[in-house]
Amino acid sequence: MRKAIVIDPRAGSVHVTTELIGHFSIDSDLQYRADLSQLKYYIPPLDPDNVNFDLNINCGFGIIFIELRGHYQNKNRMKNVDHPLHEPDSSVPLNESEEFHCMFKANFAGISLLYDAKIDAISSQQLITNTLIGKPFESIGLKMFQMRIRHMRSTPGIISKCWSTNFLANANRIVVGFRDATNTVKVIKEYSMADLLRLSKPYCDVELCKTYLTVVLKTIKQSVTKDYNKCIYKFHRQPVKETNKEVLPLELTEEAPNNEMYLFLKPWFVAKAEEYRRTQQR
Question: Which residues form the RAI1-like domain (predicted)?
């Protein structure tokens, strides 16, 4: 089945609200932990306009990272301290298996969403214990750009990717490390989400991106009618012609269920969710 989704660029602003409803950690053994053990705090460098972090230098077990006073970063990730007042220990290698995630529910233009998002770091004046829910903190997104982007505007593709990975995670501040041709970080810059979009040339129209997503979500909601144990739905985006960018072709196929390959929710979670749904319907 093939669907042609028509996008109206004049649709206007898309209203989105998000709410933090939970969180969890993934430890070094890739085990789930219902706690804040992998929550990291971002502390800015003393002189962000004059740093000299060589990404080619190995620090501890061959892992490449840079120290930004309160956190470390390898080529793709930053590792932050686990307490807002702690100094980092450069002898401890970065374990990329460790992650911290938050669970959100959102209203995306009238469509209900439930999802998790990996959180790079938070900014907080105090150590947060037990739960993030109801506590004052700011989510921080961490990125690495080439040095030339600091002086030239970047492409919409790069900026939109940076925006999209932080928008629904409620990260309103992005910390960017700019590295030069020798793979050395020279400058650390902080951007609000609005300032980040101004780096794009031509301008990155995120409202149009949200309009696309709204139409796709509505199409999925209308198309998916069978339960997970009856059918697996696959949506394939087809190439868009340059002359007709306002039409988004989607190809929908239905396949037999294969829970071993596709089911991302554990059976115990599905059972509890079904039990909760039954109690709410009484």
Answer: 81-269
